[in-house]
Amino acid sequence: MLMTFQCNASADITMFGSVGLKMVTMMGQPETKSGAIKAENIPHALEQLKAAVTHEKENDQSMKSNNNAEQEEPTVSLATRAVPLIEMLNAAIQEDCPIMWQCQ
Asked: 3-state SS of 31-84?
């Protein structure tokens, strides 16, 4: 399953559905396979996403320090995966337009 975020101020962003649902909840939205954030609510969603990303980074750093002995395959952190969505939210604020998402 893939999830696509859409906004008139930015190119579409597609990510794995599980990651997309995590991003949706990190923005303070209900975990639904489709939805939207009104333009006036985007600044709050951006603030919540940034706070959640900061929290994830702190957790990742503590996990890495505990797992230094045996290194597994490198993984892409949620903080890294959130960057395009943060950029989309900033563009949506600039253009005063909503963001929508749906699973395919």
From this structure: CCCEEEECHHHHHHHHHHHHHHHHHHHHHHHHHHHHCCCCCCCCCCCHHHHHHH
